[in-house]
């Protein structure tokens, strides 16, 4: 049915909807208690998962929109509605990903044989540390055709396969309403992959393959020996409160497939007697020694120091993987891996899949944390340079090491080789002095501020002589959006020196022509003419040649400034000599995320990080709120030095519409610069208002041609983005786990060390 007609009929039925808006009763089915101060329910038993039975006799079979709002003790989570169809029949699950205090919605179908329904407000989480409030739960009855139209609308918005199709085309491919419901449900599944069940599935599907590869690795590494002094010293910093966690840690270290040459328990004189009893229980393992922290640099003989913290555990092959990495890169001075956590039952949960070496992210947050093998001589050099090395603090050690080395000396093993205990004390000391020292060693003129979350930081880089910025805005007609864009720049930008270059590409509408005539009289605005067919690359290259500024800001005409310091933030980053392209945090008008940086390989070529997340969401591992290095950023709002733009050869003329920004960023990366994304420059993006989407055969053909160009030129590194992780999906833009081992063909094997067209 035509969507317009469907909306009219549904509107006529609106008076009847109030009869089908059900707010059912909820009956606790697990051991819950209520905190009178906070209002939160919490679980009494350690192994109990919160569960509420949904009671409403008038929830008849049919289609419903479920509305849910939950406040929980976690920032975000997944609620689960489970429909039980009795013995011998399947239960049907409907997950609702949510952010605290934000309403989430999902269409469900209640079948005739449904016996009962249950709500799990914090799916996959157990124990007394879990608290929640169900603020709102409502079932809104939907007419079948309207439910179908809503499912099609979500599928079109969230599934890249259907984004350029209308509803009729989508249904012709899918075939039936049950199949549509299956595809609709899949748009929710991917948000669950980091939950307990999703991660267990990932372990079963992926780690056997890694273990198979490890058998081959074990055979080859037996033939490889490190030279004198080049072996591992594992040390475990311990205080008296952590003794009870030691046994799991020592068991994991002493049972390595490639055991360490020496193990030190770093302790104070006060708790040495108690720890001697622990060492005695491991008497068959002769390499364990008790030392004080000040003794470690002189006593350790290994080339690499590997800190392991009480309660944590190494994967059995962890040190063997580090050994193999040493063989591949003898110059490596820092080797780190991915990690996960161990819950109170000792189960593996909450994986942390990290990017490759990301120096700006490390200055924002200790994203590496654990399973880091650090070169001992490098740490000694840092100490001689005045660095106060604190061996009990992983962040201090990492900063000390990275202050002395270059990018080619850092290696990332994309396997889970470290299991971090959730029982470990979580604290966020003030590392601003350490960060100041790092910046001084690197001769950076910058100030350190606290970041948006505990344990995060923001570095503000100074601009003693702010360079002139040329803001380039291509446009054609669309006067309303151009005026909003330009007005927001002029009225809401605190940067001291900029010009605006508007490039008119054959505007015809009277309102646009009148607006451009007015801009020609503005002292900060120059209107250039591009009287040729639309080519985004050539238009911007044309304006860049005429720009007076030493800094270029590429801006779409459908951008709207949100905060006055956007340009200051972007220029201060782009002004750094080792930084190339700088991107911003862009929002849709409804406040959800449009752009959190570009991830290569997603949907075959590239996608926007965290698209459609709520604007205040922390993102995966807090990355939506931290400055970081990414391979590419969108040209909708991009700042870079003019000399870097020219060195890279400008934008590629063969990419008239799409992926020209990706190509530019990769050329800049190949030239030796790091690209950067900052969440502290925030703007609205009314995406594709001026050009539209690829919704005609001609536009689809052009898009395919430009996709083929990128794949041909950059395919050798396209599916192994160093700003991402190969264990995460290339099908969606939400950092969920990879569901298969071959989502978009064989992963690329190239690296940015050999970036060649």
| Poorly predicted segments | 12-19, 215-224, 744-757
Query: What number is the mean pLDDT?
Result: 84
Q: How much helix is in the residues?
A: 25-40%
Rg measurement, Å: 28 Å
Q: What this model shows, in words?
A:
The protein is of the alpha+beta class and 757 residues long. The strands form six sheets. Strands 23, 24, 25, 26, 27, 28, 29, 32, 33 and 34 form a ten-stranded mixed β-sheet that branches. Strands 12, 13, 14, 15, 16, 17, 18, 19 and 20 form a nine-stranded mixed β-sheet that branches. Strands 1, 3, 4, 6, 9 and 11 form a six-stranded antiparallel β-sheet that branches. The protein is globular. The chain starts with a helix and ends in a 39-residue tail after the last helix. Mean pLDDT is 84; it is low at 12-19, 215-224 and 744-757.
In short:
The chain is an alpha+beta fold and 757 residues long. It has 21 helices and 34 strands. Helix 6 (196-221) crosses helix 10.
Write the layout of secondary structure elements.
Elements (H helix, E strand, L loop, with lengths): L2 H10 L1 H4 L3 E2 L2 E4 L3 E3 L6 E3 L8 E4 L6 E11 L3 E9 L7 E8 L4 E7 L5 E5 L10 E12 L1 H15 L8 H8 L2 H13 L6 H26 L10 E6 L8 H9 L7 E5 L5 H10 L6 E4 L4 H4 L4 E4 L5 E2 L3 H11 L5 E9 L5 E5 L6 H6 L7 E4 H9 L9 H9 L7 E12 L10 H10 L4 E5 L6 E5 L7 E7 L3 H13 L6 E7 L5 H10 L5 E5 L6 H11 L4 E5 L3 E3 L4 H9 L4 E9 L5 E3 L2 E3 L5 E3 L19 E2 L7 E5 H6 L12 H11 L3 E12 L11 H22 L39
Parallel strand pairs: 12-13, 12-15, 13-14, 17-20, 23-24, 23-26, 24-25, 28-34
Antiparallel strand pairs: 1-11, 2-5, 3-4, 4-11, 5-10, 6-9, 6-11, 7-8, 7-10, 15-19, 16-20, 17-18, 17-19, 21-22, 26-33, 27-34, 28-29, 28-33, 30-31, 32-34
Helix pairs in contact: 3-5, 6-10, 15-16
